């Protein structure tokens, strides 16, 4: 399923924070419904939504509830003291009973057809994988999930996973068992099985390296919460000079200086344009390109897809041609 979160056509509505509960150390779960009840748009495992917080900050979170529950969207948020403020606001603000603007759902991390699946999670990275485990169980497909965390109190959704999968679920608290043996897990998985991974950057880098060197190479699907190694730093990624951006729908022509992003410049004219991470890994600001040659510097679009990609992440990517035209 392709992302449309960067489009004004993406579903946006105000939802009520119906419930909040602690589900692990420093992890708060929010349940969102329509104020008067009723069905929400359908979603598939791997999907995320973007919340606009009371401060105006926008943050994307994976849907981790049951996709069969048509009236509730569930997200879980880990408090990151050194983050950019979104998780702290969610944890420190009394949100129950308040309405938030919610955009989505969007899925850049869908389940692909495969005879079986290996799901690898670190901490809060289990949130997109839990609905996958539910879906695979319902389909009767083989799966295994490995969840690591610093200690048992940080094993997010451990009880739900164990009840769902039994011995198909391996919980690895680091203070008791060390780090998950990713190499052993990948070696034990049949080569035809798809590998899904979400968690801290060092874990994702390790999984990526192991899958690339496997013989045969294993099908890997990753969702990142931070910019990955494939991100191209501006100082290393080719021309970073000034260029022009034409917004096709409005006809506006804007100048993007060398020291500013396309997103920064566009938001001056259209403050409601969707964005979240501003580091090129969440896909929220993905925007169709109608003319020009993008310089992709994100970790959303695979390296192999960049030459033919028809969209770009305007928070970090730039332009290799004098003019770039966007469907905005």
- Tell how many strands the DSSP assignment holds: 18
- Strand ordering within the main sheet: 4-3-6-1-2-5
Report the principal-axis shape. globular
Low-confidence stretches: 1-9, 228-239
**Main structural class:** alpha/beta
Number of H- or I-type helical stretches? 7
The SSE string, one letter per element, is: EEEEEHEEHEHEHHEHEEEHEEEEE
Q: Kindly, what is the distance between the CA atoms of the first and last residues, rounded to a whole number of angstroms?
A: 21 Å
Radius of gyration: 20 Å
**Major β-sheet profile:** 6 strands, antiparallel
Oligomer: single chain
- Strand portion, in percent? 25-35%
The amount of helix comes to 10-25%
Mean pLDDT: 88
Please give a structural write-up.
The chain has 328 residues and is an alpha/beta fold. Helix content is 18%, strand content 30%. It contains 7 helices and 18 strands. The chain has helices spanning 86-92, 129-139, 158-165, 174-177, 182-188, 201-213, 262-269, and strands spanning 12-24, 27-33, 47-52, 58-62, 73-78, 99-107, 117-122, 143-149, 169-173, 194-198, 220-223, 243-247, 252-256, 286-291, 294-295, 311-313, 318-319, 323-326. The strands form 4 sheets. A 6-stranded antiparallel β-sheet has the order 4-3-6-1-2-5, with helices on one face. A hairpin with a 4-residue loop joins strand 12 and strand 13 (252-256). The longest helix is centred in the middle third of the chain and has 13 residues, at 201-213. It is globular, with a radius of gyration of 20 Å. It starts with 11 loop residues before the first strand and ends with a strand. Residues 1-9 and 228-239 have low confidence and may be disordered.
């Amino acid at each position: 399923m392709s992302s449309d979160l960067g489009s004004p056509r993406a579903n946006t509505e105000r939802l009520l924070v119906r419930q909040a509960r602690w589900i692990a150390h420093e992890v708060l779960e929010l349940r969102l419904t329509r104020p008067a009840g009723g069905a929400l748009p359908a979603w598939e495992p791997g999907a995320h939504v973007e919340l606009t917080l009371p401060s105006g900050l926008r943050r994307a979170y994976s849907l981790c509830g049951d996709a069969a529950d048509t009236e509730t969207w569930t997200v879980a948020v880990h408090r990151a003291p050194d983050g950019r403020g979104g998780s702290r606001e969610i944890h420190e603000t009394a949100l129950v009973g308040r309405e938030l603007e919610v955009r989505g759902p969007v899925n850049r991390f869908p389940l692909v057809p495969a005879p079986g699946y290996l799901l690898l999670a670190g901490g809060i990275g289990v949130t997109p994988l839990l609905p996958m485990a539910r879906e695979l169980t319902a389909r009767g497909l083989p799966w295994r999930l490995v969840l690591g965390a610093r200690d048992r109190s940080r094993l997010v959704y451990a009880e739900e996973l164990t009840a769902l999968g039994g011995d198909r679920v391996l919980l690895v608290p680091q203070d008791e068992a060390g780090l998950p043996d990713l190499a052993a897990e990948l070696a034990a998985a049949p080569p035809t099985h798809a590998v899904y991974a979400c968690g801290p950057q060092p874990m994702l880098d390790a999984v990526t390296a192991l899958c690339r060197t496997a013989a045969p190479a294993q099908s890997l699907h990753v969702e990142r919460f931070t910019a990955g190694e494939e991100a191209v730093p501006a100082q290393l990624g080719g021309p970073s000079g000034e260029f022009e951006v034409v917004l096709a729908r409005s006809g506006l022509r804007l100048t993007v200086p060398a020291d500013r992003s396309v997103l920064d410049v566009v938001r001056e004219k259209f403050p409601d344009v969707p964005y979240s991470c501003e580091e090129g890994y969440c896909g929220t600001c993905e925007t169709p390109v109608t003319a020009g040659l993008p310089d992709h510097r994100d970790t959303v679009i695979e390296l192999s897809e960049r030459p033919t990609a028809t969209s770009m992440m305007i928070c970090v990517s730039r332009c290799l041609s004098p003019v770039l035209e966007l469907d905005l």
